Amino acid sequence: QVQLVESGGGLVQPGGSLRLSCSASGSIISINGMGWYRQAPGKQRELVATMPSGSTPYYADSVKCRFTISRDDAKNTVYLKMNSLKPEDTAVYYCNADLWVSRYGRQREDYWGRGTQVTVSA
Predict the structure, then answer these.
(1) Residue 1: which pLDDT band, with cuts at 50, 70 and 90?
(2) Which partner for 34 in 19, 52, 78, 105 could form a disulfide, CB atoms 3.0-4.6 Å apart?
(3) What is the pLDDT of residues 26-47, one digit of tens each?
(4) What is 43-67 written as a DSSP string?
(5) In 3-state terms, what secondary structure has residue 74?
(6) Mapping DSSP to helix (H, G, I), strand (E, B) and coil, where does residue 99 land?
């Protein structure tokens, strides 16, 4: 019913910037929230930033003031602008979407992208 596709990852030097994009496609009725998670090797997946509909964005303390989350609901797309990147930001970044979809009529479901690799290294 719905697919999420991330893009924009890559290799950057410390202090550099990247902009991640995640586009959702399918039978989407409305967006409850979209956000970004990340998982580094040997660590559990953690929330990076989320943008609920009708509420204020949330940022993990580790990325606050460096990352900015934004949404283009007309395109069902969420972005993550990452500035002043640090080696500890290295991880696979996953897009998450909490959506109302037309599956089985109308249903609220949670979706995940397949991830995009971000590597910060000199």
Answers:
(1) confident
(2) 78
(3) 999 999 999 999 999 999 999 9
(4) S--EEEEEEETTS--EE-TTTTTTE
(5) helix
(6) strand
Round to whole Å and give the CA distance between 7 and 93. 10
- What 8-state DSSP symbol labels residue 102? -
Question: Phi-psi region for residue 13, left (φ > 0), alpha (ψ -120 to 50) or beta?
Answer: beta
Q: Residue 86 is encoded by which pair of tokens? A: 């640090």
Strands, E assignment, 8-106:
10-12, 18-26, 28-39, 46-52, 58-59, 67-72, 77-82, 91-101
Cβ-based burial of 27 (10 A; exposed 0-12, middle 13-18, buried ≥19): exposed
